[in-house]
Structures are given as C-alpha cells and as structure tokens.
Amino acid sequence: MQIALARRVLSPGSIDGAAGHQTRAALAAFQRSQNLSDTGLLDTNTRAVLTLDSPISTTYTVTTNDLAELQPLGKTWLEKSQQSALAFETELELVGEKSHANPLLIKKLNPGVDWPNLVPGTVIQVPDVTYPEPADKAAFVVIHLADRYLEAFDLQTNLIAHFPCSIAAKVEKRPVGQLQVIVIAPHPNYTVNPELFPESTELQAIGHKLILPPGPNNPVGVAWIGLDRPGYGMHGTPVPEQVGRTESHGCFRLANWDAEYLLKLAWVGMPVFVEP
Hints:
It contains 9 helices and 12 strands. It is α+β, with helices and mostly antiparallel strands. It has 3 domains: 2-49, no CATH class; 57-127, Roll (Membrane-bound Lytic Murein Transglycosylase D, Chain A), CATH 3.10.350.10; 140-187 and 222-275, L,D-transpeptidase catalytic domain-like (Beta Barrel), CATH 2.40.440.10. It has an 8-stranded mixed β-sheet with strand order 5-4-3-12-6-9-10-11, with helices on both faces. Strands 1-2 form a two-stranded antiparallel sheet. It has a two-stranded antiparallel sheet with strand order 7-8. β4 and β5 form a beta hairpin. It is globular.
C-alpha cells in the first residue's frame, strides 16, 4: 500500500511497512482524488483502484562513488561549518533516502548485509519507488497545520502531490493565511544565526553567524523554497523519519525526496495557503 501510494506522489513518509498516521493520511488523499470515502482505510473499493503494475522491490548496487562520498557528520555547529559537504554518513542512510525508506526496513530486507563493511558491488534489496516527472508546475500549495501535511494542486484543483511535513513547535510561529514563494534554491548552504538559536550555548559563545555547506545532512536538506515571511520556507531535512513527528523552529520541513519533488513543482510567486 505504501509503495502504491508513493509511486503516485502521495507520500506515506519513510516507507516502513507500518500503517501509521502518515500512511492513513496519504491513503485518504488518494481516496479523495478518486471520489471515494476518505476513511484512510484500505477497504474493498480502494483496493480495487490502488493497484501496482510492477514488483514492489528492486535492487541497488553499491558503487565506489557511494562509499567515497560518505563523510562523518560533525557533532557541533562549528565542526559542520568546516566540512566540505554535509554528505551522507553511511551507505544505509544513502540507500534509505534513494528508496524513500526507513533504514530499519532496509536492514530487515537485507539481513545478511554487513553494513559497516560494505564493498563496491554489494547488491541491496530496496522498495521500488521513483516519483514520475511532473507534467507541469503546481498552481498552488495548501499546508494543513493540524494534520501536518502539504498538498500541491494544478489549475483544475487536481491533487498533484501529498507530503507529510513538520511544523513550528510554537503556535505563534505557525503562520496562517496566504504566503508566496519568493526564492527557490536546490542544494542550499545554511546560515546559522546565533540570534535564532538562543538555546545553543555553543552558538552564543561563538557570537557570529556560521555557513554550513550543502548536502543531505544540511539542516534544510537538499532544497529550500523560501516564502515571503522572513525566515520561513519549505525545505528538506537530514532526518526524514522524524518528519511530521517532531517540530521545527518555524519552517515546513519535508523528507529530502519530497522537498526535491516540490522544488520541481514550485515557482516564484506561487501561492501557499496555510490552514489551521
């Protein structure tokens, strides 16, 4: 079910084989798009139309480049700012993101793999999920704060994509109403401003801004879509398994693979409607 939904760009979050809240929300979005009762349950009518046309799994072969690009992630803001890239730390993390899957599921699918000692040519079983290329840009985006998901629509209000998202921890930092996209940045760096992190004793001691390099473990992941409210945007994350389960400083956080897809749909001036 999760794979069938994901192939339709209706993300159930990190694929893990468990029908939790995010999977039910994606299924309900599919049901609404098919004019079915949006129960979030895989009933008979839904099962009849939510079909798969190819096997649910495929293989991924570990490459020399994969292993060469891995980097340990610094433990402090200063250490991260000094890295050449905020790359994947492990092949397990890399394979999980490429297949939209929870690393724990990848390990279960590959019980014989020696993850700490991988060699090039190792073949990994993974969920077979690839988002189709979008036919066009989205007309607008709607973010549902209460249910923690983001949806993109075309000009005829047809659903294009459904993604879980994290929202601000503090209610006063959750903007409601109409916003607008003002900047689109793939593979962004990230400026850490001590004024925005008063809880960080490290940053307060440093006393000046730091610039963190791009990469999947950058605080805003691999994509930044800035909004017309200073400091707010839709972006990726280094911890996709926590999307929709933890809270942010104020932005709308998506799994990296979802943020990358949203980047293809977005355009400067695109309306973003934030609902309570």
